[in-house]
Amino acid sequence: MSFFGxxxxxxxxxxxxxxxxxxxxxxxxxxxxxxxxxxxxEPRIETIIKIANYFSITIDSLLTSDLTVNELLRFxxxxxxxxxxxxxxxxxxxxxxxxxxxxxxxxxxxxxxxxNDLPEISLPVESDKLVRAFTVVxxxxxxxxxxxxxxxxxxxxKISEEEYDNFGNGEVVIIVLEKEVVLRKIYFVADKxxxxxxxxxxEEKIFERTEIKELWQTKYSFIRRLPEVGDDIENKLLxxxxxxxxxxxxx
Length: 251
Hints:
Low-confidence stretches: 75-89
Strand content: 15-25%
Shape: globular
Helix content: 25-40%
Distance between the termini: 88 Å
Structural class: alpha+beta
Number of strands: 11
Number of helices: 10
Oligomer: single chain
């Protein structure tokens, strides 16, 4: 398996994944992944199958050949120029939880096959953590025509359980519970989790910390509508300019 370590290191580079993010995808320890990449340890067959299936690579290619960048980017025969490679590497491929599958996500969030089948979107973001994109499905995080609307997309980094004690002071998060996926501001109070909406007419939700299945901190948002350009002051100034022009023309 002399090619395995080199190939997974190359996969991480092309996909923009840190060792930690890659290891979390396949329930591995970061040190274990490092040992694979350095050739100090060999993986179990289950791990090889998971990685091969996840990235649509044959097991034979993963173990017995030095994969090329073109193969990893799923190119066929065309050559990849260096400037095109830089452009591709600047885009991160992110698993996307859409309107269609968000209801199932709380049940299958830890199912490798389900995660593998999620669609992917490519965005110009960078992160050393595992990243996922979620669709906004309600108006809970809107306030006076501001905030996140349905069909907007939020991109979030996974927060480990070890980070909870230094987290939870009003950050906007995606929290996965047993029967729902919630987008709200989070507060940790002792063993409780308080989730507050931006919309004033929506009551807060309170859960036990142990009920958290996954926690994702939102980092970016992409809106699916054209935002209003300008503000009230600008609009008033334009109105005054038009009125002054009318007065000049009348005189």
